[in-house]
Amino acid sequence: MFRFLVRRILGAAVILLIISAITFLLFYVAPRDPARVACGKVCTPQTLALVKHNLGIDDPLPVQYWHWLEGVFVGRDYASFGHCNAPCLGYSFQNRVPVLSLIEDRFPTTISLALGSAVVFVIFGVGTGMIAAVKQGKALDKIASSASLIGSSLQIYIVGIVAMYYLSDEWGILDRPNDSSGFTDDPGAWFSGLLLPWFVLAIIFTANYTRMTRSQLVETLSEDYVRTARAKGLSARTVFFRFAWRGAMGPIVTILGLDLGSLLGGAVITEQTFGLHGIGALSVKAVRDNDLPMLLGVVLVAAGAIVLFNIVVDAVYALIDPRVRLA
Fold it and tell me: For the ABC transmembrane type-1 domain, which residue ranges apply (predicted)?
């Protein structure tokens, strides 16, 4: 198991390095020069050169990338910003503060949104899928399948707006979404401020998990080893949870890891819909401001979250099915 994880971690490090190089190339070869934007309307060639030097973008592109990569591991000195301690993702062109500090300030909102909604949609999605599989072909199965089909066709920016209007503004059942209070500051306000986004995300994601769980369990329940367990006289509960359920969890764990990685990387549409100030909203602002270091930092955080959860998925998958460790 240890060697399996080491191989996955080394592979993830290489992937992140490649992603950082490609992202750096794409952003810093953009047609809109960030130095000219920062220079203002009256910009002489001398002033533009000084601005580029102060922003650290006056060197050739490979040298810029090397300096950026060096800053991630050992820190970096900027002419106008001073020293940036490792891990340094650069300074925001607009805010003149370290990119990592801005990301750290916004990350708690994104973590709360992702993990809280994941708890809701996994419990309801997997639970409903299990019931549908057990009651295959009956009324509960048909209702669950129809509801999941409707739910998977909904969009967050439609459901979110409708839910805020009725549940918060008209009926006052739930508070309007806000992230002004952290979990450690006021758990009650934190919970009530994120309950509506969790509920809406659960509607969208629960449908996928219901269909996936049902299809996997129906297929697993028809396998030879499950029928053999039944023939040996084991109880239906034992057959279901010890054999069928475990065999069906692999694909579900896989999509859960991908979904969590995507949400932690910044749920842009969700945060914009509910007015939350997480990584997604930060990336939108960076695009508007042409803030390339911030964009690069957010993309790498998103990529890192996805890669990290892929490693977690591989580890969980290896625990569920030891044959995976040989891959």
Answer: 107-317
Cα separation, 301 vs 225, whole angstroms: 43
Shared-domain flag, residues 126 and 71: no
Does 16 map to a domain? no
216 and 257 share a domain? yes
In a shared domain, residues 122 and 75: no
- pLDDT value, residue 28: 67
For the full predicted model, state whether its pTM sits above 0.85: no
Q: Tell me, what DSSP letter sits at residue 282?
A: H
Q: How many domains does the chain have?
A: 2
The four Cα atoms 224, 226, 232, 238 give a dihedral, to 10 degrees, of: 170
Whole-number Å distance between alpha carbons of 167 and 172: 6
Range list of H helices, the chain = 2-28, 34-39, 45-55, 61-74, 99-134, 139-152, 156-163, 187-221, 224-231, 236-238, 245-264, 268-274, 279-289, 292-320
Please tell me the predicted confidence (pLDDT) of residue 11: 83
- CB distance 250 to 318 below 8 Å: no
pLDDT along the chain (327 residues), means of 10: 76 85 75 62 72 71 83 81 82 82 89 88 88 84 82 83 90 87 82 89 85 86 82 82 78 83 77 87 83 83 82 76 57
Spatial distance between the Cα atoms of 92 and 72, rounded to a whole number of angstroms: 15
Residues 6+ apart with CB under 8 A from 325: 1, 4, 318
Domain span including residue 76 = 34-88
For residues 171 and 53, membership in a common domain is answered with no
- Domain end residue (candidates: 88, 114, 133): 88
At position 21, the amino acid (one-letter code) is: A
Instruction: Say what the pLDDT of residue 71 is.
Output: 85
Output the pLDDT for position 221: 82
